[in-house]
Amino acid sequence: MAEKEYIEREALVERLKKEECDCEWLWTILDIPAAAVEPVRHGHWKKSKGYERPTENGFVHDDRYVCDCCGWGCCCEIKLDFNFCPNCGAKMDRSM
After folding, report:
1. Alpha carbons 10 and 16: distance in angstroms, whole number
2. Residue 43's pLDDT is what?
3. Which of 1, 37, 59, 70 is deepest in the core (most CB within 10 A)?
4. Which positions ≥6 away from 58 have C-beta within 8 Å?
């Protein structure tokens, strides 16, 4: 399936008015329901200090991976399975 494209209705209507477009087209455009679209956020997993946990030989420090957009974190290598943040939906495609 092809990725959908979205436009700003107000920008289209203003352009058609400048072009002196037929009023029927303007009403048709205004009658079409608007999609609920949210801008795509781009982020990356950043490594941060997690927490210390007890082991037989003392304490071990677990690394934590945090979304740089919202701060949601997960431990271990679980973050490698996500190409988006499960908390805020940011695409994890931005380079560090």
Report:
1. 10
2. 92
3. 70
4. none
**pTM of this prediction?**
0.52
Read off the tokens for 40: 């795509």
Mean pLDDT for each 10-residue chunk of the chain (96 residues)? 79 84 80 85 82 68 80 68 86 79
State residue 47's pLDDT score.
80
Residues 6+ apart with CB under 8 A from 88: 41, 67, 69, 70, 72
Cα–Cα dist 47/62, whole Å: 11
Q: Quick one: pLDDT at residue 32?
A: 87
Distance CA 72, CA 15 (A): 42
Pairing of strands 73-75, 45-55: unpaired
**CA-CA distances (angstroms) from residue 88 to 31, 44, 67, 74, 79?**
32, 12, 9, 13, 14
Residue 42: the pLDDT is 93
Quick one: tokens of 29?
């455009």
